[in-house]
Amino acid sequence: MPEPEPPQENFEAGLKQLEAIVKEMESGDLPLEKSIELFEKGIRLSERCRKQLEEAETKVEILLKKGDKVQPEPFEPRSA
């Protein structure tokens, strides 16, 4: 059974974990079960990073739409 994911991390930490997983998998020295476990974890991390990136892009778009005045505006992330 895959281990539970840690609480929400920042984008950079998630990306660093994802890079470590890719490096470990590329070594080719893993049993099949461990490879599948790492692949599943990588997919979850990738999805979380993608969502964080989309949220950041939305914030930037909101700020740019303000024109002369740069005012942060709360937004609701799109539900999946």
Could you report the average pLDDT, rounded to the nearest whole number?
81
Largest sheet: none
Percentage of residues assigned to helices: 55-70%
**Percentage beta strand:** under 5%
Low-confidence regions: none
Please give the number of β-strands: 0
The appropriate CATH architecture of the domain at 11-65 is Orthogonal Bundle
How widely separated are the two ends?
25 Å
CATH topology of the domain at 11-65: Helix Hairpins
Description:
- There is one protein chain.
- The chain is an all-alpha fold and 80 residues long.
- It has helices at 11-26, 32-65.
- The relative contact order is 0.13.
- The longest helix has 34 residues, at 32-65.
- The mean pLDDT is 81.
- The chain is 62% helix and 0% strand.
- Helix 1 runs antiparallel to helix 2.
- It has a domain at 11-65: Helix Hairpins (Orthogonal Bundle).
Compile the SSE list and pairings:
Blueprint: H1 11-26, H2 32-65
Helix pairs in contact: 1-2
What attributes characterize this protein structure?
Helix Hairpins; mainly alpha; single chain; 80 residues; 62% helix; 0% strand
